[in-house]
Amino acid sequence: MSERKRSTVVELGSGYGGPYVEQYQQIGAVFVALDIERLSLVRLRKNYPQTEALCASAEHLPISANSIDKLLIQFPHSWLLAPGLQSGSDILDDGWFREFSRVLKDGGELEIIGDYYLRPDSIIKTASRFFELKGEVKAVSPWRLEEIGSDEALDLIGSSRTRPGVLSCPVISFTKKVGEISSQW
User: Fold this and answer.
1) 120 contacts 152 by C-beta, under 8 angstroms
2) The whole model's pTM is what?
3) Which residues of 116-146 are buried (b: 16+ CB within 10 A; e: fewer)?
4) Which domains does the chain have, with CATH numbers?
5) d(Cα 7, Cα 181) in Å, to the nearest integer?
6) Quick one: pLDDT at residue 143?
């Protein structure tokens, strides 16, 4: 009987984590939390001891090429993560998508759950060299995101009550193009 290979999910900007960490682990995935803030990872490790937690930035992920199945980014802070995701970035012409492409397996998935500051059209344009849009951009009610349980989701729910125009959050899913740049540049 052959053993089923476990999928590897890496979350960029994990913060303290949330119930979704255990949800991925319950379905048999290896979940790796990545954040630039060490203190957040200390709390995450305390709450989710089975989770590998790495302190690193999006520009240079400490992950082998072609090694992960899914990269997850939830509520990227406009001042921290969003500049590397949206075109017009002064960080890199390709944003951070070249690095995301390097670590994802061919056909791997990149999922971005945004807030009202995220510009989906800009992200799609910046990502297009390395990724194909998977379906349509979904609009999810902030209240449906409550199950994520992260501090960011709860803050967003609170903001939506004080900002009537905040009715939905974009969810953008991409698939890595097969054979695209995947080695270290």
Assistant:
1) no
2) 0.79
3) bebbbebbbebbeebbeeeeeeeeeebeebe
4) 8-176 (3.40.50.150)
5) 22
6) 57
* Mean pLDDT lowest among 32-36, 163-167, 173-177: 163-167
Q: Given the DSSP bridges, would you call strands 30-35 and 8-12 parallel, antiparallel or unpaired?
A: parallel
The full length of the chain comes to: 185
Tokens (6 digits) for 174: 């991409």
Q: Which residue has the tokens 């999928």?
A: 7
Q: How far apart (Å, rounded) are the C-alpha atoms in residues 101 and 130? A: 6
Q: What is the pLDDT of residue 132?
A: 93
Distance CA 61, CA 174 (A): 19
Count Cβ atoms within 10 A of the Cβ of residue 28 and give its class: 0-12 exposed, 13-18 middle, 19 or more buried.
exposed
* pLDDT tens by residue, 24-52: 888 999 999 999 899 999 999 999 999 99
d(CA 73, CA 82): 10
